[in-house]
Amino acid sequence: MKLRSFRIRIALLSAVLAGSAIAGFGLISWWLIYEAKVSRLDAELESQLMRAGRPRSPNRWQSYEAFLPGAFGTNTAIAMLVIDANGNVLYRSEEWATDLDTNNLWTSRPQLQPFPPSHSQRQTAPFPERSQPSRDRPPPPPRFVTQRTATGTWRVGAVTTPFAQVAIAVSLKAIAQEMVVIRNIFLISIPGVLLLVAGGAWGIAGSSLHSIRRLTKVIGNVTASGLEQRVPIGATDVEFVELIQVFNQMLSRLEHSFKQASRFSADAAHELKTPLAILQGELERTLQQAEPGSEVQQGLSNLLDEVRRLSGIVRKLLLLSLADAGQMALYRVGVDLSGLLIEMLEDIELLAPHLEVKTEIADGLRVQGDRDLLVQVLQNLISNAIKYNLPNGWIRIDARRQGATVLITISNCSKEIPTGDRDRIFDRFHRGDPARTRKVEGIGLGLSLAREIARSHGGDLTLDPTLSGQTAFTLTLPVGL
Fold first, then answer.
1. What span, in angstroms and rounded, lies between the C-alpha atoms of 112 and 159?
2. Are strands 394-402 and 78-83 parallel, antiparallel or unpaired?
């Protein structure tokens, strides 16, 4: 599963790469340290082998072995094996493991010289003449091998001298203990370093994404009334400059296009107001002069209704264009919503006496707002509840205060609204009747304008999820000061 957080991926990838590098470095370092310790042990073994290979009487091997702990450490197990020219064991330490392999310790068995006689022998017999080793054939260098036995791991060094074959075995237990300490240090320090690397990568990634967060903040604040915003470049990283420039250019194009569209809607609505007012006045004057009950009077009456309907469309379009441009002027006063709703109950009884009206209106619901616009919102909601109701249906009005907000819910008995229509119910010129018939009056601008008015007051208008067979809209308004 791919992690969707870029910052987490950067931190984890940095930790993995750094961990691989540090782990590889740790393994190589551990191996080099081990090899260095073994090499130093081999050098000391070679020095002691050369000393041990000097001629001495057989009974002095044990005395010589007693000095070896001073070279290798007092806590280190040491064993020694000495063989004469005939393959006889001159000396074997008690610590010499029986399972140490001595077959391959010496690569060759050159002709060995006999040991010189002891002091008592030199008094009775001359010292035999020794043949000097051949300068053309120097003795082979010491050989070092590592052997594992039941008693532990040993580093064995063997050398062939002109007088004897000597092998010294040193236990690697002390080196193994030191390497365990070094390994534990690595195991403790590496996770700490990885945490530092991951934390550093997390911080660096966060710092690198600062420009993206600024861009996201500006994008989140982009609304119809906030298209003039721009993201400042300032000291932004070079990699994000082009992105910010493209985004600012896009905002400029959107602002220009939106202002043109809003200006066109406002200008068109404003220009239509005067001819429509003149046309309505002329129709009303002509209608008064027509013969009562004639076809001319009926035709003029129908034309006057259409002109009034068109005037309402123009008025709503003008308000919507002002809302889009963020220029809807509000004349804020104290508005008694409880009183307004009670007054509108009388209109419901006159317009729809066949409907059952249920109310639950709290007293003293007051807000700061434009009274005429809020009346328009409530009238629109009540009008829709009447128009889209079922025969012998009902209307319910609930008004209450919740914290610093006034909630007004107007619900009615109705057919179920399809899901597609629920998502588009606040779209402009959208109506639930796909044929756009006049069976239900309306132009599809009322809910859109009501929501814009609510939002201009700092509130909102929403379609509530309800049970089948009913529709409910909730108007929320801040109480204000």
1. 12
2. unpaired
Amino acid in the structure at residue 56 = R
pLDDT at 110: 47
> What is the gyration radius of the CA atoms in the chain, in angstroms?
51
Number of domains in the chain: 3
Model confidence at 119, in pLDDT bands (50, 70, 90)? Answer: very low
pLDDT at 320 over 80: no
- For residues 56 and 147, membership in a common domain is answered with yes
297 and 247, same domain (yes or no):
yes
Pair (174, 156) in one structural domain:
yes
Residue 112 pLDDT exceeds 60: no
Last-in-domain residue among 324, 359, 385: 324
Is 307 part of a structural domain of the chain? yes
The pLDDT tens digits of the residues spanning 417-450 come to: 877 777 778 776 666 554 344 455 555 677 888 8
Do both 356 and 430 map to the same domain? yes
| Tokens at 291, concatenated | 């013969």
CATH number of the domain that 253 lies in?
Answer: 1.10.287.130
Query: Domain check: are 273 and 358 in the same one?
Result: no
Determine the pLDDT at residue 223: 66
**Owning domain of residue 100:** 6-116+138-180
pLDDT at 118: 45
Q: Is residue 231 part of a domain?
A: no
Per the CB < 8 A criterion, the answer to whether 395 and 410 are in contact is yes
pLDDT of residue 444: 66
The answer to whether residue 162 is domain-embedded is yes
Query: Which of these ranges, 123-132, 267-276, 326-335, has the smallest mean pLDDT?
Result: 123-132
